[in-house]
TrEMBL record:
Pfam family, one: Ank
Renumbered ranges of ANK repeats: 34-66, 67-99, 100-132, 133-165, 166-198, 199-231, 232-264, 265-297, 298-323
Keyword vocabulary terms for this entry: ANK repeat, Repeat
Entry's Gene Ontology cellular component terms: nucleus
UniProt keyword Repeat present: yes
Organism (species): Trichomonas vaginalis (strain ATCC PRA-98 / G3)
Top-level taxon in the UniProt lineage: Eukaryota
Keyword Protein biosynthesis in annotation: no
Protein name per the record: Ankyrin repeat protein, putative
GO biological process, one term: regulation of gene expression
Length: 323
């Protein structure tokens, strides 16, 4: 038998069986061990006609499985556009959340499904909806380098300066993963470059912490406050020097970072370099005019930290520079 004819015959038989079971009282919303109904399966497998049949016989279109996922969620996650459109036309709740508080739009952004995101937005998806961690769809798109989807979300009104539960904006996250393109996109669309999270850190702090030199340079070019302090009184330079991020530290210094800036304990970057035995960092700081005899709140100098902690080479360096 011709394969196409066989497939058509099988399709006819299956459809006839489905109608038979439904007409004889089959529970259309019966769930399996995973909490899925027949409609979940139809959406997952992209069986549009089956979904249509089930809906016409009263299937609960917004029924959730054990993970809190609806049929629409399956259709959108798996690029099943036609089935998704069908479900939406029958009243599927676009903004329904799963157990993690994610909507279909969160997943579209996470998976970089630009067309799905467009479909959801065109039908009224809440573009700034947050999941249980306070993350929006834009946050997922930017964190995962999904630039085109991020641009789409921004064009539909995504709040660029929205904060998650740690008060971080998408710019903070883009900076900490060194996504220069995304950082540029966000700034061009109005991201607050000096916005602080709950620890008082700006995007520049994160770029320095993670040694994201190119991103740091971009942030500085757009006017990031190079000497901004976090809640512990630490600047971007302090993070760069503490973590051996020499190139980023040199960049910050070349753009006017204050080498002798103190944290809440009165320590400068040189105190930390001596304490951590970062000889090269201490050399870098000294070569750019660090105050070698500066004291912290306890009256300790960098040399005191180096000697107390048996950091002989760093101590010798400090002495050679006039400590």
């Amino acid at each position: 038998m011709d394969k196409t004819l066989f497939a058509m015959q099988q399709h006819y038989i299956i459809k006839k069986q489905q109608n038979f079971f439904i007409s004889h009282g089959a529970n259309i919303n019966e769930k399996d061990k995973d909490g899925k109904t027949a409609l979940h399966i139809a959406a997952e497998k992209d069986h549009k006609e089956t979904a249509e049949l089930l809906n016409s016989h009263g299937a609960n279109i917004n029924e959730k499985d054990n993970n809190g996922q609806t049929a629409l969620r399956y259709a959108t996650t798996l690029y099943n556009k036609e089935t998704a459109e069908l479900l939406i036309s029958h009243g599927a709740n676009i903004n329904e959340k799963d157990k993690d508080g994610k909507t279909a739009l969160h997943i579209a952004a996470e998976k970089d499904h630009k067309e799905t995101a467009e479909l959801l937005n065109s039908h009224g998806a809440n573009i700034n909806e947050k999941d249980n961690n306070g993350q929006t769809a834009l946050r997922y798109a930017t964190t995962l380098y999904n630039k085109e989807t991020a641009e789409l979300l921004i064009s539909h009104g995504a709040n660029i300066n929205d904060k998650d539960k740690d008060w971080k904006t998408v710019l903070h996250h883009a900076a900490l993963i060194n996504s220069k393109e995304i950082v540029n996109l966000l700034i061009l669309h109005g991201a607050n470059i000096n916005e602080k999270d709950q620890d008082g850190k700006t995007a520049l702090h994160y770029a320095a912490y993670y040694n994201s030199k190119e991103t740091a340079e971009l942030l500085i070019s757009y006017g990031a406050n190079i000497n901004e302090k976090d809640k512990d009184g630490q600047t971007a330079l302090r993070y760069a020097t503490t973590l051996y991020n020499k190139e980023t530290a040199e960049l910050l210094i070349s753009h006017g970072a204050n080498i002798n800036e103190k944290d809440k304990d009165g320590k400068t970057a040189l105190h930390i370099a001596a304490e951590k035995d970062h000889k090269e960092t201490a050399e870098l700081l000294n070569s750019h005019g660090a105050n070698i005899n500066e004291k912290d709140n306890n009256g300790q100098t960098a040399l005191r930290y180096a000697t107390t902690l048996y950091n002989k080479e760093t101590a010798e360096l400090l002495i050679s520079h006039g400590a």
